[in-house]
Design goal:
Elements: E1 8-13, H1 20-29, E2 34-36, H2 37-45, H3 52-58, E3 63-64, E4 67-68, H4 70-77, H5 81-105, E5 111-115, E6 130-135, H6 138-146, H7 153-162, H8 166-172, E7 175-178, H9 183-201
Parallel strand pairs: 1-5, 1-6, 2-5, 6-7
Antiparallel strand pairs: 3-4
Length: 202
């Protein structure tokens, strides 16, 4: 698939707690098909998922009848770069295949959205035409993350340490969506960007 005979690919990313899922849904509301990398991973690791057996073999005790126990798996790899790398080498190719299938399925659309949490960290920027970074102030980020079930200050800091700093992401972005503002304003930012991209592709 060459760049000319496929949709314009928007890569959506942002650090934890920045409101990326909310913004992704706003793009969907504007008629842009979404491939959600996290949802793909959930599917691969859920009940009957394609990777459940391989993950259990790699990390014994990390799965049950519901598929992968994400908390147990997270505990097995957090703070162990070698274990995390082994897990990623298993997951990334499988997600890549699903993304390719999605691209073929929507090949007639003017643009599609790839929600890629670690777009910069894992060189997911390759093959993306326009990078959108979802961003908010540090206090907004912190307050959003710490209300999540099972989240602690220590875990939040560990996750943040694995992610490129927000300021760096903003610099690398083609567009930034600021979610520190009211939802209506965030939606307006998304609508304007979609209109702008459609106009540039026409």
């Amino acid at each position: 698939m060459t760049k000319r005979d496929r949709p314009h690919i928007i890569g959506l990313t942002g650090s934890i707690g920045m409101g990326k899922s909310t913004v992704a849904q706003m793009f969907v509301d504007e008629g842009v098909p979404l491939f959600d990398a996290d949802a793909a991973v959930h599917q691969l690791q859920g009940p009957g998922g394609a990777l459940v057996e391989a993950i259990e073999a790699m990390f014994p005790g990390s799965t049950n009848s519901e598929g992968v126990d994400r908390q147990k798996l997270g505990a097995a790899v957090l703070g162990d770069p070698a274990a995390l790398q082994r897990l990623e080498q298993l997951i990334h190719p499988a997600v890549g295949e699903m993304r390719l299938a999605f691209l073929k399925q929507h090949s007639d659309r003017p643009m599609i959205l790839f929600d890629i949490p670690l777009l910069f960290e894992k060189s997911g920027a390759e093959g993306v035409d326009h990078i959108v970074v979802v961003s908010a102030g540090p206090e907004d980020q912190r307050s959003r993350v710490l209300v999540r079930p099972g989240m602690t200050e220590e875990r939040f800091e560990q996750i943040k340490a694995l992610q490129m700093p927000d300021a760096e992401k903003r610099q690398k972005a083609d567009s930034v969506i600021d979610t520190s503002r009211p939802l209506t304003e965030t939606r307006q930012q998304v609508q304007k960007l979609v209109q702008k991209l459609k106009a540039s592709l026409a």
